[in-house]
Inverse folding.
């Protein structure tokens, strides 16, 4: 490999890092737009905290926990911080795809995403201090441990036997994180929503789901487009080099799945509810993006469209199932990130270059292991917080708004009110 190619690879990875960072603005706008005005500052504060605290905690120990080097396949640790003496700026590091420093910052942007998924699902009724504490623990410990099982060279990445039977597979496969990122956040969001309960006024006395409209749909739509743009870095960077053929294929499959997911969700929701629901359209696009993330490098354009079409239907069905279960997810995070994350990961064993019964079994087993670990971990963390610090704001704080009670400010001050 030439020095020029090494530089090109690294520049591409740094650009992808910037795109993934930009996704945090997308999440902020999406969550803000789909919730009520009185909680805007609270949403923005949580998203600011997630990226700042997430990077620091990932630097402190998360990166070494996720990429420990040689370890037993289940749990390893390579020390605190980032050692300056590491030989990570030469072509020999990562096959010339990027430097050690680019490796850390790219993966650090991924780490914070898991907590961002939870933020939207628990919006408008969780205590800010409780959410911050949970985020630090989950991003600092749970996400890196799960990540080490696959991306860090752990037991899932080499699992090719089950109950004594040898399977014809190289192990679990999740290209950019349908499960490792999105489902890890989705399982935590599900547990958090169950423990928190629904917002006041979300369900009638008869148990019927009532709409609580978001206050700024244009901002939410802008968030979706920013997330779609950021996904070019999320999936494109997961090639781990600037390989022209594979990178361009990944961007094509990513976009086609997103487009198909949007169309599928809008059509199926229109047939179901007899109206054109833009929020379903938005979440269908995101569902298509999540669905393709596990196998974006394995799918043909036509296969990626199929994954997106199914993802869009899954979003619509999942949103309605969640309502029927009397769970309250203001932004549809569980439907998008958990349900479509599971589908996208399973799809690797059904569609595309790795499709086989053995690969399907490995995908299913791996999802089940991760689901159990994340659900138990999230429950223990959140239940402990609930019994000690407290998890939910008071009825008065919820009714009057978290912006007033937790932040003492208004997101949309009327500057002209007192002018003469």
């Amino acid at each position: 490999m030439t020095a020029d190619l090494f530089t090109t690879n690294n520049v591409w990875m740094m650009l992808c890092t910037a795109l993934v960072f930009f996704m945090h603005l997308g999440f902020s706008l999406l969550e803000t737009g789909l919730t009520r005005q009185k909680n805007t500052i609270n949403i923005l504060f949580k998203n600011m905290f997630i990226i700042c605290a997430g990077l620091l905690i990932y630097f402190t120990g998360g990166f070494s926990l996720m990429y420990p080097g040689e370890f037993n396949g289940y749990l390893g640790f390579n020390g605190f911080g980032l050692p300056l003496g590491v030989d990570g700026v030469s072509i020999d590091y990562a096959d010339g795809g990027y430097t050690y420093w680019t490796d850390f910052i790219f993966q650090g942007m991924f780490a914070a995403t898991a907590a961002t998924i939870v933020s939207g699902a628990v919006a408008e009724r969780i205590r800010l201090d409780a959410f911050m504490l949970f985020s630090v623990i989950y991003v600092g410990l749970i996400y890196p441990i799960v990540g080490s099982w696959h991306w860090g060279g752990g037991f899932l990445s080499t699992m090719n036997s089950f109950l004594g039977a040898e399977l014809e597979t190289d192990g679990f496969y999740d290209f950019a994180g349908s499960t490792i990122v999105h489902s890890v956040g989705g399982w935590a969001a599900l547990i958090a929503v169950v423990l928190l309960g629904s917002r006041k006024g979300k369900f009638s006395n008869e148990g019927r789901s009532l709409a609580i409209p978001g206050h700024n749909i244009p901002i939410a739509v802008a968030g979706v487009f920013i997330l779609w743009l950021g996904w070019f870095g999320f999936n494109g960077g997961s090639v781990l080099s600037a390989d022209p053929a594979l990178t361009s294929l990944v961007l094509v499959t990513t976009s086609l799945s997103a487009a198909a997911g949007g169309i599928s969700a809008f059509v199926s929701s229109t047939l179901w509810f007899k109206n054109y629901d833009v929020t379903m359209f938005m979440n269908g696009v995101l569902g298509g993006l999540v669905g393709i993330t596990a196998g974006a490098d394995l799918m043909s354009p036509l296969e990626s469209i199929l994954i997106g079409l199914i993802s869009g239907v899954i979003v619509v069905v999942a949103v309605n199932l969640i309502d029927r279960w009397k769970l309250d997810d203001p932004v549809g995070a569980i439907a998008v990130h958990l349900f479509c994350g599971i589908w996208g990961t399973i799809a690797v064993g059904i569609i595309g270059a790795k499709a086989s019964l053995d690969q399907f079994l490995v995908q299913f087993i791996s999802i089940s292991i991760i689901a159990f670990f994340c659900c138990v971990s999230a429950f223990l963390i959140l239940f402990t917080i609930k019994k000690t610090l407290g998890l939910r704001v008071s009825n008065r704080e919820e009714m009057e708004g978290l912006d007033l009670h937790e932040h003492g400010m208004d997101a949309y001050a009327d500057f002209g009110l007192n002018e003469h």
About this structure: The mean pLDDT is 94. The first helix runs from residue 3 to 33.
